Each structure stands twice: as structure tokens, then as C-alpha cells.
Amino acid sequence: MKRFLAVSFCLVLSVVALGAQSRSAAPFKARLSPLGVTGATVNTITGLGAVTATLTGATLAIDGTFEGLTGVATAANVRRGPKAIPGPVVFDLEFTKASSGHVSGTLTLTPEQIADLNAGRLYVQIHSERAPDGSIRGWLLK
After folding, report:
1. By the 8 A CB rule, do 77 and 84 touch?
2. pTM of the predicted structure, to 2 decimals
3. CA 49 to CA 62: how far, in whole Å?
4. CATH topology of domain 25-139
5. Are 94 and 70 in contact (CB under 8 A)?
6. Is-contact 99 83, C-beta < 8 A?
7. What is the pLDDT of residues 5-20, one digit of tens each?
8. Pairing of strands 26-32, 48-56
9. Cβ contact 126:30 at 8 Å
10. Strand, helix or coil at 14?
């Protein structure tokens, strides 16, 4: 009986350890830069930044910085779209209302959004007063 309990206990520990491994954190990064700059927008779409994101289970934690916007940041969000193709807003992020600052958020993703993240179809975009359609953006990649 003692041996049976010891074997059962080891099996339970193994299952718990495997479950913890499957929930391990997956890192993502994005370099924020101007996209879609033309001769007409070169003076209004400026800036740069960097974002790191960690997916643990279904929770995505985003943290980053930006600088050099030509105006005050007015919005920051996560959007869905293939690389270099603009897409709709999925989540809003917290951000500094200045031309340089911080962006962050903790989001709960659906299984479909996790698949989009792993496929490189989620990106961070920051908007500013002088570029209301978006100043800088970067796709979250492994």
C-alpha cells in the first residue's frame, strides 16, 4: 500500500510539472518604427520604440517605451493584421500622453488570438496628435 501511494504521488508530481512546463512564458519583441511614410507624411510620422511581451498561459503582458513622436501620444493599442498590413484594434494599452514615454498592458487572449500572436499577426501601434492614423508600429515576433 505504501509503495502504491508513493508511485501515485510521483505520478501526480509529474503531471503537475508537465502542466507547469506547458504554461511556461513565451517571449515576444517588437521594434516600433514609422510605417507608410511618404513625402507628404515625413514630417508628421516620426518616432521609435521597443516593446517586449510575455505570453503565460492566455495572459499577454506588454511593456515598452517610445520616443520622438512629432506630437503627444493619443492612443496605443494592439491590432490584428499580417506583417505590413494595417488591421483592426484588438486591445487598448496604457500609455504616457507625451511625445516620449511608456506603453503597457496585461491582456487575456482567446485561443484564436494566441494563434494570431504565434503567427506574427498581432502588432502594437501608437498614435499621436499629428498622426492620428498611427505614428509608429511593430509586429510582435518570437
Report:
1. no
2. 0.82
3. 13
4. Immunoglobulin-like (2.60.40)
5. no
6. no
7. 444 444 443 433 334 4
8. antiparallel
9. no
10. helix
State how far the alpha carbon of 24 is from the alpha carbons of 15, 31, 53, 54, 95, in Å: 14, 24, 13, 10, 27
CA of residue 12 relative to chain centroid, distance: 34
The grid coordinates of residue 81 equal 493584421
Boundaries of every domain in the chain: 25-139
Ordered strands of the 59-67 beta sheet? 26-32, 48-56, 59-67, 101-108, 94-95
How do residues 90-113 score in pLDDT, each as one tens digit?
999 999 999 999 999 999 999 999
- CA 93, CA 138: separation in Å to the nearest integer? 14
Q: Are 101 and 66 in contact (CB under 8 A)?
A: yes
Gap between the Cα atoms of 52 and 136, Å rounded: 15
For residue 48, the 8-state DSSP code is E
